[in-house]
């Protein structure tokens, strides 16, 4: 279905507020991420993300669908993706991830993904996009990818 529709990447913008707040306050979306935020905490997080310029959006035919995060963790750039449950399972994350990984600065950075063992979809995304499973001292699965 979504394969024929145009997916484009852009930085997080003011117009994404409702999408961002919906993601961070949704219990199912946040199941493997953290406790869901209250709407006011999600709004504060949105304002901080706009200031820090550390989030991107993959938009399907202009509609925000995937939130892409990139946060510095020492030498690594820790990355993640979030979609609302209504859009899961249509390969949107697969398409958005492939696009994003080909763009600077993501393409040239040492990348880290940490996710719950039970988050099979996220672990598959990492494995399908050239990430290698790494040892982890914490309970989360850890994947890394070095620039080629
Ligand atoms: C993880 C997430 C981004 C995946 O998005 P998506 O668009 O549904 O993923 P895709 O449709 O591109 O599928 C990716 C792979 O996972 C598989 N998959 C999707 N949902 C799955 C599920 N519930 N269980 C097992 N595998 C699943 C797909 O079959 C595909 O595997 P394949 O390449 O072998 O065919 C989405 O579920 C999400 O936003 N979850 C909540 C936020 C989150 O946990 N983010 C990760 C934080 S590190």
Helix-strand layout with pairing:
Layout: E1 7-11, H1 17-25, H2 39-52, E2 55-60, E3 63-73, E4 76-82, H3 92-101, E5 111-115, H4 120-128, E6 132-134, E7 141-145
Helix pairs in contact: 1-2
Description:
It is a single chain. The protein is an alpha+beta fold. The protein has a single domain, classed as Aminopeptidase, CATH 3.40.630.30. Helix content is 28%, strand content 28%. It contains 4 helices and 7 strands; from the N terminus they run E-H-H-E-E-E-H-E-H-E-E. The protein has helices spanning 17-25, 39-52, 92-101, 120-128, and strands at 7-11, 55-60, 63-73, 76-82, 111-115, 132-134, 141-145. Strands 1-2-3-4-5-7-6 form a 7-stranded mixed β-sheet, sandwiched between helices. A hairpin with a 2-residue loop joins strand 2 (55-60) and strand 3 (63-73). Helix 1 (17-25) crosses helix 2. It is globular. Bound molecules: coenzyme A. Coenzyme A (COA) is lined by residues 29, 32-33, 80-83, 88-94, 115, 119-122, 124-125, 128.
């Amino acid at each position: 279905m979504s394969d024929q529709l145009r997916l484009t990447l852009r930085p997080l913008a003011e117009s994404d507020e409702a999408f961002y707040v919906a993601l961070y306050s949704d219990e199912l979306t946040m199941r493997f991420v953290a406790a869901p935020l209250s709407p006011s905490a999600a709004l504060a997080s949105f304002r901080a993300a706009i200031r820090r310029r550390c989030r991107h959006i993959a938009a399907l035919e202009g509609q925000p669908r995937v939130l892409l995060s990139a946060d510095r963790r020492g030498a690594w750039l820790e990355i993640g993706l979030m979609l609302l449950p209504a859009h899961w399972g249509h390969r949107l994350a697969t398409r958005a991830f492939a696009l994003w990984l080909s763009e600077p600065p993501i393409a040239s950075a040492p990348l880290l993904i940490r996710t719950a063992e039970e988050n099979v979809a996220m672990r598959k995304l990492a494995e399908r996009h050239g990430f290698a499973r790494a040892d982890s001292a914490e309970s989360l699965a850890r994947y890394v990818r070095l620039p080629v």
